[in-house]
């Protein structure tokens, strides 16, 4: 008998960080913005493509 729970596909809507912040070295907080996330993803994308192995 298969006891594994099936994984349901679900759509992910716009992310809401509801006040999420980065704590700076001096203890101040910087709110996380969509632009910050896009910039980080764009910076990571080239490095992840270098590590892909050809099929």
Topology:
Layout: E1 21-23, E2 29-31, H1 34-50
Antiparallel strand pairs: 1-2
What features would you describe in this structure?
By secondary structure, the chain is of the alpha+beta class. The protein has a domain at 21-47. 31% of the residues lie in helices and 11% in strands. Strands 1-2 form a two-stranded antiparallel ribbon. A hairpin with a 5-residue loop joins strand 1 (21-23) and strand 2 (29-31). The model has no long low-confidence stretch (mean pLDDT 77).
Helix content: 25-40%
- Helix-strand string: EEH
The number of helical segments is 1
List how many beta strands DSSP finds: 2
The overall pLDDT, averaged over residues, is 77
Helix-strand category = alpha+beta
Poorly predicted segments: none
Main sheet record: 2 strands, antiparallel
Task: Give the strand order of the largest sheet, numbering strands 1, 2, ... along the chain.
Answer: 1-2
Percent of residues in β-strands:
5-15%
Query: Roughly how many Å apart are the termini?
Result: 35 Å
Global outline? extended
C-alpha Rg, in Å? 18 Å
Task: Describe the structure concisely.
With 55 residues, this protein is of the alpha+beta class. The chain is built from 1 helix and 2 strands, in the order E-E-H.
List the defining traits of the structure above.
extended, alpha+beta, two-stranded antiparallel ribbon, 11% strand, 55 residues, 31% helix, 1 helix
């Amino acid at each position: 008998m298969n006891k594994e729970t099936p994984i349901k596909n679900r759509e992910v809507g716009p992310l809401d960080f509801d006040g999420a912040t980065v704590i700076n070295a001096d203890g101040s907080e910087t709110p996380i913005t969509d632009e910050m996330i896009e910039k980080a993803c764009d910076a990571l994308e080239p490095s992840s493509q270098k590590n892909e192995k050809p099929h």
